[in-house]
């Protein structure tokens, strides 16, 4: 981990003939930070948006408990207006589980009415050809959310890649780096290998690289975030990095703030060093 010492000017070392250089403006964080809606499964939309605004997080992956599938156009417009009041944009919907073609149809129609071009989905394997056709029809991106060892389908990035590499190029993955690690994979290496099919990222930290690993504040667990953030720059990732915080979900606010603060600090530090 890089220390702060190289970036702190020591006035005692600055002689009269070597004036201290003017302070440079703070680097802007290059990543679009968001929040996975599931983080706020126990809270209403108002609480969610107020929290995001206080943290200067401007993107939300929409879950149906905040905007139900059966919402009218008026309700959808009201949802977006409320988001805008808090400087938040709903950029995607999901994750949405899909067990049959009717549920695929419903998800794509919902995303179109909401006005987003990214669906985070978990389709059964046999539905992938049907999803492929829907992506072509709707001209949108479809990111399969991987779930580690907890469920049978799509446990890690390699598995998603194997199932999507021959499909439409707009079908890829939501790289959940915590679940990828919990399935004994390296999320840094996987981002580099599969970045052309990474359309969304769930950032989180976990206590162990195994099924027993549980969610923890970013920076306290097993994921090498400086290396991961460096890899984001290396592959020129332009999607959203959404925090999915799953510890203390009935009182997550301090953990969310710590996690967002750590991610921003590491990103800004890397800006400073090049």
What order do the helices and strands follow?
EHEHEHEHEHEHHEEEHEH
Number of strands: 10
Strand order of the biggest β-sheet: 1-2-3-4-5-6-7-10
Radius of gyration: 20 Å
Please identify the structural class as seen in this structure: alpha/beta
Main beta-sheet annotation? 8 strands, parallel, barrel
Q: Uncertain regions: pLDDT < 50 for 5+ in a row?
A: 1-29
Estimated share of beta-strand residues: 15-25%
Distance between the termini: 15 Å
Helical fraction: 25-40%
Outline type: globular
Q: Could you report the average pLDDT, rounded to the nearest whole number?
A: 90
Total helices: the number is 9
Key traits:
8-stranded parallel β-barrel, alpha/beta, 274 residues, single chain
């Amino acid at each position: 981990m890089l220390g702060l010492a190289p970036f702190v000017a020591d006035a005692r070392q600055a002689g009269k003939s070597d004036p201290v250089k003017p302070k440079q403006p703070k680097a802007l964080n290059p990543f679009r930070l968001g929040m996975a809606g599931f983080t706020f499964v126990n809270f209403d939309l108002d609480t969610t948006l107020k929290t995001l605004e206080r943290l200067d997080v401007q993107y939300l992956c929409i879950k149906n408990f905040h905007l139900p599938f059966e919402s009218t156009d008026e309700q959808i417009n009201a949802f977006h207006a409320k988001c805008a009041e808090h400087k938040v944009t709903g950029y995607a919907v999901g994750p949405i589980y899909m067990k049959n073609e009717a549920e695929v149809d419903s998800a794509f129609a919902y995303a179109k009415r909401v006005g987003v071009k990214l669906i985070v989905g978990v389709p059964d394997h046999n539905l992938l050809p049907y999803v492929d056709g829907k992506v072509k029809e709707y001209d949108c991106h479809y990111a399969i959310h991987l779930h580690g060892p907890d469920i049978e389908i799509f446990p890690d990035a390699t598995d998603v890649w194997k199932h999507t590499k021959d499909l439409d190029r707009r079908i890829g993955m939501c790289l959940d780096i915590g679940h990828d690690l919990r399935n004994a994979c390296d999320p840094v290496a996987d981002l580099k290998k599969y970045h052309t099919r990474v359309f969304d990222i769930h950032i989180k930290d976990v206590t162990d690289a195994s099924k027993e690993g549980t969610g923890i504040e970013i920076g306290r667990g097993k994921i090498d975030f400086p290396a991961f953030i460096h890899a984001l720059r290396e592959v020129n990732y332009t999607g959203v990095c959404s925090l999915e915080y799953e510890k203390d979900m009935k009182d997550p606010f301090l953990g969310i703030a710590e996690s967002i603060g750590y991610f921003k600090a590491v990103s800004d530090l890397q800006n400073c060093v090049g």
